[in-house]
Design brief:
Layout (H helix, E strand, L loop, with lengths): L1 E6 L3 E7 L4 E8 L4 H15 L9 E5 L11 E2 L2 H12 L5 E5 L4 E6 L5 E6 L8 H10 L4 H9 L12 H13 L4 H23 L5 E4 L6 H11 L12 H15 L1
Parallel strand pairs: 1-4, 4-5, 6-9
Antiparallel strand pairs: 1-2, 2-3, 6-7, 7-8
Length: about 260
Amino acid sequence: MFAGIDVGTESIKVVVMDEGNPLFTKMEVTEESGLMASRRLMEEARKALSLNPANTMKVAATGIGKKTVSFADRQISEQICHTRGAHWLFPSARTVLDIGASGSRGMKLSGEGKLLDFALNSKCASGTGAFLETMTKLLETSFEEMSTLAAAVAEGTKISNYCAVFAESEVISKIHAGESRASIAAGIYEAVVDRLMEGLRQLGIRPDLVVTGGVAKNAGILRALEKRIKLAVKIPGDPQSVGALGAALIAREMAKR
């Protein structure tokens, strides 16, 4: 058995696999420390898989809180883990875009799944899940309803500010000015894609493009992104766990060596 743990800004993901496939996958939003939450989820995995407590397994950790997982055999960068996980799921992947709660990153990979180059988002948070969550509150809507609203218009209102704080003020002004929620919602998605394109342009987009992270579940973002790049993107069944999957694959390679 091999395990990968991804400690993100808001959630922790654990994947346990054998020589062939993942056997246990769990994602949990928690305020616990990375160490406490990862220990608890690993114990949950052991029970779910009926593993002997004496059974040892290689563990690799990734994510912003990877260093908190003190029992891991190795800590690995998010770029490498998302690349490895995305390529295992989609061998045709040549570009990976990870959009999380507090950041995004683009990655270019080889045909063998090796990380060739990467680009991180700018310091501004307007291309992340946290920004989208703030926008749903301003529009008094859910993620699903916001996506439906945006689909009803051909083009959204322009959100010109790159800074998340100023963009929030701009959206409030547009609401007060009487602009439709549908037009504002579409404009928000287009503004987020503007930020995501910063990194993708640096790398160059090569198909297939795989989108990972929690925001990969947002239909409005995917629709706006595909419209911009004029390509269909590939989405894993569990996009939030791709980093943990990549870490588990690396743990498996460590054990073989």
